[in-house]
């Protein structure tokens, strides 16, 4: 969006970061619009994981785990994305960080 308007992408990111908005409501709304405007009998749902190597251990979800990026067990965070494609239409429906069992147990004790 920023490039289309001739604005540096970082400016748009900063602008969006200043706003207070309901992320879950926005995700729900996008999913509703996709369902309404792009339903297709040959549509495909996509699930994708994206690992990010990390140093340290303070980022939520980081721990030694299989990291497809490096092809081995490595200290990383894994994000999981759901997408949708129908014909020439493609979109991201939702994303979240995979929380390993060890991290889930930490949150139960705090």
Note down, in words, how this protein is organized.
Helix content is 32%, strand content 35%. A hairpin with a 2-residue loop joins β3 and β4 (89-97). It has 110 residues and is an alpha+beta fold.
Computed CA radius of gyration, to the nearest angstrom: 18 Å
What kind of sheet is the major sheet?
A: 4 strands, antiparallel
Mean pLDDT: 88
Broad structural category: alpha+beta
**Net shape:** globular
| Helix content, binned percent | 25-40%
Order of helices and strands: HHEEEEH
Number of strands: 4
- Stretches where pLDDT falls below 50 for ≥5 residues? none
The total count of helices amounts to: 3
Strand content: 35-45%
Head-to-tail CA distance between termini: 40 Å
Short description:
With 110 residues, the protein is of the alpha+beta class. It is 32% helix and 35% strand. It contains three helices and four strands.
Question: Topology of this structure?
Answer:
Elements: H1 9-18, H2 23-38, E1 44-53, E2 63-67, E3 72-86, E4 89-97, H3 101-109
Antiparallel strand pairs: 1-3, 2-3, 3-4
Question: What attributes does this structure have?
Answer:
110 residues, alpha+beta, 4-stranded antiparallel β-sheet, globular
């Amino acid at each position: 969006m920023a490039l289309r308007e001739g604005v540096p992408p970082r400016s748009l990111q900063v602008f969006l970061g200043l706003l207070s908005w309901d992320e879950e409501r926005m995700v729900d709304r996008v999913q509703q619009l996709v369902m309404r405007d792009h339903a297709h009998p040959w549509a495909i749902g996509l699930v994708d994981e994206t690992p990010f190597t990390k140093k340290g251990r303070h980022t939520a979800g980081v721990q030694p785990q299989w990291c497809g990026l490096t092809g081995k067990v490595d200290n990383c965070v894994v994000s999981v994305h759901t997408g949708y494609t129908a014909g020439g239409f493609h979109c991201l429906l939702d994303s979240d960080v995979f929380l390993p069992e060890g991290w889930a147990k930490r949150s139960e004790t705090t």
